[in-house]
Amino acid sequence: MAYRVIQWGTGSVGKLALRELLKNPEFELAGVKVYSDAKVGQDAGSLCGMSDTGIKAVKHAADLQLQPGDTVLYCPMIADYGEMTALLTAGANVITTASNMYPQFYGAGVYERLNAAALAGNATFHGSGVNPAFMSDVLPLTMSGLVHRARKITVREVSDVNHYASTAPEIMLDHIGFGKAPEIALKADDFVKGMTAYFSESITMIADHLEVKLDRIEEDHEVATSKVRVTLDNGRTIEPGTVGCSAGMALSVDKPGSSFRRSGR
Length: 265
Description:
Largest sheet: 6 strands, parallel
Oligomer: single chain
Radius of gyration: 20 Å
Order of helices and strands: EHEHEEHEHEHEHHHHEEEEE
């Protein structure tokens, strides 16, 4: 018997998740929730480059045929706690890529709200991803078992901007700021602030599991400009003098005698 799954969101991450759902016979696609009016009514297969499935995308959650025990792959850019708790209370298991891989970071209010909703609906909640949710937290914790004492933990992410900005321009260009003037890119919008908190979850998770009391979490965001015009695979350009050589976010947590650092470039 296949597991019923609803795909919530079909952006850069969601469409990849949807594609893998359709490939795996262990899963039965039960519905697709989209945010764009242009996607409403489209077949799930066409939204991810696969054959038609007969499942049409809807915009309103009430139009989904949600059943207790269903799993919802919740993949919007920014998490909505009202949506997630409603799904959990209704008995749906929620797997999300919209941060919250360690919701304890956001305080007892958020954690207890999610936990109470899951208990009420006899459902489960799981924050998932590659980085965070593995590379910047699970892997360092696993590797910590190889040493007697960890004095410093550094996690560094290096991404090819051409590939990333071509496949997810809404993230790298519109929010992170590649192709923008440095002074604009350094003004964090709600998405960037959310990403800062997202990676802070990793640091908090590591510290909690290693039983380290944190003094503070510091943020450092730096940009550098391109000297040449760069044409991305999707046709968009990064002009000279705009952010293009590297744009990064570094989070550090310091305690007398020890430190944790997570950086992205």
